[in-house]
Amino acid sequence: MRARTTTRTRWVMVLLGVLSPLAVLGCTPGSDQANTTMALPVHGACATLPPGPAEPPAGAVVVDPAIPGDLQAKTKASPAGTTFWLKPGTHTLGTDEFDQIAPKDGNRYVGAPGAVVDGRDLNRYAFTGKASRVTIEHLTVTGFDAPDNEGVVNHDSGADWLIQSNLLTGNHGAALMAGARQVMKGNCLKDNGQYGLNACCGEVTDLLLEGNEFVGNNADDVESKYPDGCGCTGAMKFWEVDGADIRGNWIHDNRGPGIWADTNNNDFLIENNLIEDNDGNAIFYETSYNAVIRDNTMKRNNVVGGREFVDRDDNFPTAAIYISESGGDARVPARTDKIEIYGNDLEDNWSGITLWENADRFCNSPANTSTGTCTLVVGDVAKCAPPGILREPLLSDCRWKTQNVQIHDNRFAVDPKAIDCQAMCARMAVLSNYGSSPDWSPYQAETVPEAITFDQHNRWYGNDYTGPWTFVAHDASTLVEQTEWQATPYRQDQGSTFAVGGGG
């Protein structure tokens, strides 16, 4: 959920873009080491989905689309570990909204060329239950009517699922939920009502997303259904996920953010993705911990959202990468104890990187929109109240801190004319607000603006800038030029290079 304001952007759909070539390096899930022996060129999965087998695999149960409910019936009648081959054609379930397929442990569902599982806007869910080690591949799954914040495939977050080479399109809610150690490779998640992927809530660990394409998601403009918005849209959303490798994906033309990690996520590796033309942030990392964001290409993100801020005279520095109440903490086990952002290429986005911390948002405060949650280093919401919160260690630990963020060796280029910007773009920022609420808060006044700007080890250095960049420091009213940004007291972007260019 958005930390700064209760007014949400009403995202406007953007036309689909044209794929740029991108090469990625593979690495093992949970490892921060690149495997330089393997180069995987990324092409749009939606255009290059490999066909399934034209004949049933050995020992497979054949599923006939001419028999309504055949897939449900044969799943129920067959033992765990069965492979099902879905013949070409449109496979349907029953006519009740809760007709669904409940796999057993180790089941495998393989589609022949042209195999479609269609909910016909009657059924809520396709594949459900808590079975483990289920495989779904070479299927088109469409027409399911899951409610908001629920999903169609792996609805109940079963563990160790493999989802690969599928077309998940035209569903309401989320096309796909995630379970522990889920692997998602080479899928097309397109034009789904709310999310392509929803990973939630507290038992999801060690995810791998590789070589997928997310395009046109939040097609139902779910934010507009709620008077104050919901903070529940975009290509993908993560909540309380511990460990995720997101690499080599093409994430584009979604209504809302591209990658959104919201509330007590930890240990994310986001690398070698092409993220472009999303209405919202390319990457939004919120009230979360410890991440590496490297070697991504980000183009023309948050242009729609940025213009909306301008239209309502909101001077907040909305940006392509938005780090909100998130930082590195060695007490939360991960592959890094920082948020490290490096080796990325950002071009013609609505601003660069914003580091933000809401002084009024902390565990047990009314401004904590992640209701009922506390920081991972405290856990118990009740502890974060007077008198305990007024002294250490709770004084420090009840805040989600934007701290230990290192931003280096990135390229930031912007031409305001290319994104039709007359004001409030081409900014980089580290800031907070004046603390004022609640009346018992120990973080009143300038406490948090001073901390995030000067004391929490947030550093830019060694970056390459092209364009008329300006910098926001301490609070939204303080806009400084390059020389001030590099000088005392901020001392940011030491060793960086600056060229006006970009229409400046």
UniProtKB/TrEMBL annotation:
Residues 155-326 form the Right handed beta helix domain. It comes from the Bacteria. InterPro entries: Beta_helix, PbH1, Pectin_lyas_fold, Pectin_lyase_fold/virulence. This is Right handed beta helix domain-containing protein. Transmembrane segments: none annotated. The keyword Signal applies. Coiled coil: none annotated. The keyword Transmembrane helix does not apply. It comes from Amycolatopsis endophytica. Residues 1-26 form the signal peptide. Keywords: Signal.
